[in-house]
Amino acid sequence: MDPDVGDRRRQTERLIARAQSARRRAEERQIDAAESRQRLEQREVETRRRLERQWAAAARFGAPRGAGPATVVPPAPPGPAPTPAEAAAPAKAAPATPDPAATAPATPDPAEPDPSAPDPAAPDPADPEELGAMMDAGLRVALALTGADMGNVQLLDRATGALTIVADRGFQQPFLDFFAVVVDDDGSVCGRALSAGAAIAVRDVEQDAQLAGTPASRVLLEAGVRAVCSTPLLDRYGAPLGMLSVHRRGTHEWTHADHLLLGLLSRHLAGLLDP
Protein backbone atom coordinates (compact mmCIF):
# COMPACT_ATOMS: atom_id res chain seq x y z
CA MET A 1 0.00 0.00 0.00
CA ASP A 2 1.17 3.48 -0.85
CA PRO A 3 2.42 5.15 2.39
CA ASP A 4 0.75 8.40 1.39
CA VAL A 5 -2.60 6.63 1.06
CA GLY A 6 -2.18 5.10 4.50
CA ASP A 7 -1.34 8.49 6.03
CA ARG A 8 -4.35 10.12 4.41
CA ARG A 9 -6.58 7.30 5.65
CA ARG A 10 -5.31 7.72 9.20
CA GLN A 11 -5.79 11.49 9.02
CA THR A 12 -9.32 10.96 7.72
CA GLU A 13 -10.09 8.54 10.54
CA ARG A 14 -8.74 11.03 13.11
CA LEU A 15 -10.86 13.82 11.63
CA ILE A 16 -13.95 11.59 11.72
CA ALA A 17 -13.21 10.66 15.33
CA ARG A 18 -12.77 14.33 16.28
CA ALA A 19 -16.04 15.27 14.55
CA GLN A 20 -17.87 12.49 16.36
CA SER A 21 -16.35 13.56 19.66
CA ALA A 22 -17.32 17.20 19.06
CA ARG A 23 -20.85 16.12 18.22
CA ARG A 24 -21.10 14.09 21.43
CA ARG A 25 -19.84 17.07 23.46
CA ALA A 26 -22.38 19.36 21.79
CA GLU A 27 -25.19 16.92 22.61
CA GLU A 28 -23.98 16.66 26.20
CA ARG A 29 -23.90 20.46 26.51
CA GLN A 30 -27.46 20.65 25.20
CA ILE A 31 -28.55 18.09 27.76
CA ASP A 32 -26.69 19.96 30.53
CA ALA A 33 -28.30 23.25 29.47
CA ALA A 34 -31.77 21.71 29.55
CA GLU A 35 -31.12 20.19 32.97
CA SER A 36 -29.73 23.49 34.29
CA ARG A 37 -32.82 25.31 33.05
CA GLN A 38 -35.06 22.79 34.78
CA ARG A 39 -33.05 23.12 38.02
CA LEU A 40 -33.32 26.91 37.84
CA GLU A 41 -37.06 26.78 37.31
CA GLN A 42 -37.41 24.34 40.19
CA ARG A 43 -35.26 26.57 42.40
CA GLU A 44 -37.44 29.58 41.61
CA VAL A 45 -40.56 27.62 42.57
CA GLU A 46 -38.91 26.44 45.80
CA THR A 47 -37.67 29.90 46.72
CA ARG A 48 -41.11 31.37 46.16
CA ARG A 49 -42.54 28.80 48.56
CA ARG A 50 -39.77 29.42 51.09
CA LEU A 51 -40.41 33.16 50.87
CA GLU A 52 -44.09 32.66 51.58
CA ARG A 53 -43.27 30.46 54.59
CA GLN A 54 -40.71 32.96 55.90
CA TRP A 55 -43.17 35.83 55.61
CA ALA A 56 -45.82 33.81 57.40
CA ALA A 57 -43.33 33.07 60.20
CA ALA A 58 -42.06 36.66 60.48
CA ALA A 59 -44.60 37.92 63.00
CA ARG A 60 -42.84 41.27 63.18
CA PHE A 61 -43.95 42.05 59.69
CA GLY A 62 -47.61 42.12 60.66
CA ALA A 63 -50.47 41.45 58.21
CA PRO A 64 -49.84 42.49 54.61
CA ARG A 65 -51.54 45.63 53.40
CA GLY A 66 -54.36 45.47 50.89
CA ALA A 67 -57.93 44.31 50.66
CA GLY A 68 -58.99 40.89 51.79
CA PRO A 69 -60.52 38.25 49.56
CA ALA A 70 -63.59 39.32 47.63
CA THR A 71 -66.92 38.10 48.94
CA VAL A 72 -69.33 36.83 46.32
CA VAL A 73 -72.96 37.51 47.21
CA PRO A 74 -75.29 34.94 45.60
CA PRO A 75 -78.39 36.31 43.82
CA ALA A 76 -81.69 36.17 45.67
CA PRO A 77 -83.95 33.26 44.65
CA PRO A 78 -86.68 34.26 42.18
CA GLY A 79 -90.21 34.78 43.57
CA PRO A 80 -93.41 33.28 42.16
CA ALA A 81 -94.20 34.22 38.58
CA PRO A 82 -97.02 36.85 38.25
CA THR A 83 -100.40 35.81 36.80
CA PRO A 84 -101.46 37.21 33.39
CA ALA A 85 -103.88 39.60 35.10
CA GLU A 86 -101.18 40.88 37.46
CA ALA A 87 -98.77 41.33 34.60
CA ALA A 88 -101.31 43.38 32.59
CA ALA A 89 -102.31 45.60 35.51
CA PRO A 90 -100.46 48.93 35.90
CA ALA A 91 -97.87 48.98 38.61
CA LYS A 92 -99.03 50.56 41.85
CA ALA A 93 -96.70 52.87 43.68
CA ALA A 94 -96.09 51.84 47.24
CA PRO A 95 -97.06 54.46 49.79
CA ALA A 96 -94.06 56.36 51.06
CA THR A 97 -93.45 55.65 54.70
CA PRO A 98 -90.68 57.39 56.58
CA ASP A 99 -87.83 55.19 57.56
CA PRO A 100 -86.95 55.87 61.19
CA ALA A 101 -83.49 54.42 60.67
CA ALA A 102 -82.79 56.94 57.91
CA THR A 103 -83.76 59.96 60.03
CA ALA A 104 -82.22 58.79 63.30
CA PRO A 105 -78.60 59.83 63.97
CA ALA A 106 -76.11 57.08 63.29
CA THR A 107 -74.79 55.44 66.44
CA PRO A 108 -71.46 53.67 66.23
CA ASP A 109 -71.53 49.96 66.85
CA PRO A 110 -68.99 49.19 69.60
CA ALA A 111 -68.36 45.79 68.01
CA GLU A 112 -67.61 47.31 64.59
CA PRO A 113 -63.99 48.56 64.23
CA ASP A 114 -63.45 52.09 62.97
CA PRO A 115 -61.75 51.78 59.55
CA SER A 116 -60.12 55.20 59.98
CA ALA A 117 -58.50 54.25 63.29
CA PRO A 118 -54.90 52.98 63.22
CA ASP A 119 -54.43 49.25 63.51
CA PRO A 120 -53.05 48.61 67.03
CA ALA A 121 -51.34 45.44 65.78
CA ALA A 122 -49.56 47.15 62.90
CA PRO A 123 -45.93 48.18 63.47
CA ASP A 124 -45.31 51.86 64.01
CA PRO A 125 -42.66 53.24 61.60
CA ALA A 126 -42.35 56.35 63.76
CA ASP A 127 -40.92 54.30 66.65
CA PRO A 128 -37.15 53.92 66.02
CA GLU A 129 -36.93 50.65 67.97
CA GLU A 130 -39.89 49.10 66.18
CA LEU A 131 -38.63 50.39 62.85
CA GLY A 132 -35.23 48.80 63.44
CA ALA A 133 -36.88 45.51 64.47
CA MET A 134 -38.99 45.49 61.28
CA MET A 135 -36.00 46.11 59.04
CA ASP A 136 -33.88 43.55 60.92
CA ALA A 137 -36.60 40.92 60.45
CA GLY A 138 -36.67 41.68 56.73
CA LEU A 139 -32.89 41.47 56.54
CA ARG A 140 -32.88 38.05 58.23
CA VAL A 141 -35.35 36.79 55.64
CA ALA A 142 -33.20 38.18 52.80
CA LEU A 143 -30.07 36.45 54.11
CA ALA A 144 -31.88 33.15 54.68
CA LEU A 145 -33.44 33.04 51.22
CA THR A 146 -30.47 34.21 49.15
CA GLY A 147 -27.77 32.40 51.16
CA ALA A 148 -25.87 35.67 51.62
CA ASP A 149 -23.40 35.98 54.51
CA MET A 150 -23.93 39.61 55.52
CA GLY A 151 -26.31 42.45 54.86
CA ASN A 152 -27.77 45.77 55.91
CA VAL A 153 -30.83 47.94 55.51
CA GLN A 154 -30.52 51.70 55.05
CA LEU A 155 -33.21 54.35 55.14
CA LEU A 156 -33.18 57.59 53.18
CA ASP A 157 -33.04 60.91 54.98
CA ARG A 158 -35.10 63.09 52.63
CA ALA A 159 -33.63 66.27 54.09
CA THR A 160 -30.03 65.33 53.21
CA GLY A 161 -30.62 62.74 50.48
CA ALA A 162 -28.31 60.31 52.31
CA LEU A 163 -28.76 56.67 53.30
CA THR A 164 -28.17 55.69 56.93
CA ILE A 165 -27.93 52.14 58.33
CA VAL A 166 -30.81 51.03 60.58
CA ALA A 167 -30.19 47.25 60.57
CA ASP A 168 -27.11 45.13 59.85
CA ARG A 169 -25.92 41.55 60.12
CA GLY A 170 -22.35 40.23 60.07
CA PHE A 171 -20.38 43.51 59.92
CA GLN A 172 -17.78 44.99 62.23
CA GLN A 173 -17.48 48.64 63.25
CA PRO A 174 -15.05 49.78 60.50
CA PHE A 175 -17.60 48.85 57.83
CA LEU A 176 -20.47 50.45 59.75
CA ASP A 177 -18.47 53.64 60.28
CA PHE A 178 -17.48 53.95 56.62
CA PHE A 179 -21.02 53.35 55.30
CA ALA A 180 -22.78 55.23 58.09
CA VAL A 181 -23.84 57.92 55.60
CA VAL A 182 -24.04 57.15 51.87
CA VAL A 183 -25.02 59.50 49.04
CA ASP A 184 -25.86 58.66 45.45
CA ASP A 185 -22.60 59.90 43.94
CA ASP A 186 -20.01 58.25 46.19
CA GLY A 187 -19.38 55.27 43.89
CA SER A 188 -20.56 52.63 46.35
CA VAL A 189 -22.92 49.89 45.19
CA CYS A 190 -25.80 51.14 47.35
CA GLY A 191 -25.12 54.72 46.20
CA ARG A 192 -25.26 53.61 42.56
CA ALA A 193 -28.54 51.75 43.20
CA LEU A 194 -29.95 54.87 44.87
CA SER A 195 -28.98 56.98 41.87
CA ALA A 196 -30.35 54.47 39.34
CA GLY A 197 -33.54 53.70 41.26
CA ALA A 198 -32.93 50.03 40.45
CA ALA A 199 -30.99 47.06 41.80
CA ILE A 200 -27.22 46.98 41.23
CA ALA A 201 -25.40 43.64 41.51
CA VAL A 202 -21.62 43.21 41.63
CA ARG A 203 -20.20 39.74 41.01
CA ASP A 204 -16.67 40.56 42.17
CA VAL A 205 -15.75 43.67 44.12
CA GLU A 206 -12.13 43.43 42.95
CA GLN A 207 -13.06 43.28 39.25
CA ASP A 208 -15.99 45.73 39.05
CA ALA A 209 -15.02 48.61 36.76
CA GLN A 210 -16.69 51.31 38.89
CA LEU A 211 -15.77 49.90 42.29
CA ALA A 212 -12.28 48.42 41.98
CA GLY A 213 -9.58 50.53 43.60
CA THR A 214 -11.98 52.86 45.44
CA PRO A 215 -12.08 53.40 49.22
CA ALA A 216 -15.44 51.60 49.27
CA SER A 217 -13.85 48.59 47.60
CA ARG A 218 -11.04 48.55 50.16
CA VAL A 219 -13.50 48.62 53.09
CA LEU A 220 -15.61 45.86 51.51
CA LEU A 221 -12.59 43.62 50.98
CA GLU A 222 -11.36 44.23 54.52
CA ALA A 223 -14.83 43.19 55.74
CA GLY A 224 -14.53 39.94 53.76
CA VAL A 225 -17.01 40.94 51.04
CA ARG A 226 -16.51 39.89 47.41
CA ALA A 227 -20.05 40.15 45.98
CA VAL A 228 -22.81 42.70 46.64
CA CYS A 229 -26.41 43.21 45.55
CA SER A 230 -28.26 46.40 46.55
CA THR A 231 -32.01 46.74 45.92
CA PRO A 232 -33.80 50.06 46.56
CA LEU A 233 -36.95 50.35 48.65
CA LEU A 234 -39.34 52.45 46.56
CA ASP A 235 -42.69 53.98 47.47
CA ARG A 236 -45.80 53.59 45.32
CA TYR A 237 -44.64 56.46 43.09
CA GLY A 238 -41.14 55.07 42.58
CA ALA A 239 -39.41 57.49 44.97
CA PRO A 240 -36.64 55.96 47.12
CA LEU A 241 -37.26 55.19 50.78
CA GLY A 242 -34.15 53.15 51.57
CA MET A 243 -31.94 50.26 50.48
CA LEU A 244 -31.69 46.51 51.10
CA SER A 245 -28.16 45.15 50.50
CA VAL A 246 -26.86 41.60 50.81
CA HIS A 247 -23.19 40.56 50.65
CA ARG A 248 -21.31 37.32 50.06
CA ARG A 249 -17.80 36.31 51.08
CA GLY A 250 -17.07 34.74 47.70
CA THR A 251 -17.63 35.93 44.17
CA HIS A 252 -21.20 35.25 43.09
CA GLU A 253 -23.21 35.48 39.90
CA TRP A 254 -26.49 36.94 41.15
CA THR A 255 -29.33 34.96 39.57
CA HIS A 256 -32.82 35.83 38.43
CA ALA A 257 -34.14 34.04 41.52
CA ASP A 258 -31.96 36.26 43.76
CA HIS A 259 -33.30 39.42 42.11
CA LEU A 260 -36.86 38.11 42.29
CA LEU A 261 -36.64 37.41 46.01
CA LEU A 262 -34.92 40.68 46.86
CA GLY A 263 -37.40 42.61 44.74
CA LEU A 264 -40.34 41.03 46.57
CA LEU A 265 -38.76 41.69 49.95
CA SER A 266 -37.91 45.29 49.11
CA ARG A 267 -41.50 45.95 48.05
CA HIS A 268 -42.75 44.42 51.30
CA LEU A 269 -40.40 46.53 53.41
CA ALA A 270 -41.31 49.64 51.44
CA GLY A 271 -44.98 48.86 52.11
CA LEU A 272 -44.25 48.89 55.85
CA LEU A 273 -42.56 52.27 55.55
CA ASP A 274 -45.21 53.75 53.26
CA PRO A 275 -48.51 51.94 54.06
UniProtKB/TrEMBL annotation:
Residues 131-273 form the GAF domain. Residues 1-16, 24-53 have a biased composition (Basic and acidic residues). InterPro entries: GAF (IPR003018), GAF-like_dom_sf (IPR029016). Pfam families: GAF_2. Residues 1-131 are annotated as: Disordered. Residues 56-71, 84-106 have a biased composition (Low complexity). Residues 72-83, 107-125 have a biased composition (Pro residues). Gene3D superfamilies: 3.30.450.40. This is GAF domain-containing protein. It comes from [Actinomadura] parvosata subsp. kistnae.
